Amino acid sequence: MQLWRQSAAARPQGYEKSEHLLFSRASRWMRVGGVLLLAYIVYHLLHMTLGWAHPDFVPGDVYHNLVSAFQNPVVTAVYVGAMLLLAAHLYHGIWSLMQTLGLSHPRHDRFRRPIALILTLFIVGGFLTVPVAIAAGFIS
What we know:
The chain has one domain: 3 helical TM bundles of succinate and fumarate reductases, CATH 1.20.1300. The protein is mainly alpha-helical.
């Protein structure tokens, strides 16, 4: 929220022409996605760590807690949605990291997006493996 205010204060008059074509969808979702990811992290801690949002929570029994949580389609859908937001955030972050490290050169530009995509798919795919396997009935 503070970033929105600072951004608006820095340029009170909008741009004459929108240049959205220069930016990826992921970069345009960073502010909203960041706030939603923070909300999800709070929910995740309350649900999986503290058990306050998990009716079948058993302290110390991670396997039981995961299986009982992800057998609920709503919990699984929320988790998958959060991982899609994380994917957009990671993709943009990895791409920006390479630019920050000086890899923004015509010789390297064609590799930045594919590398960001591959790393994002690897990380988010790993996070999604267990919930999807539980929801599909492979793990019970």
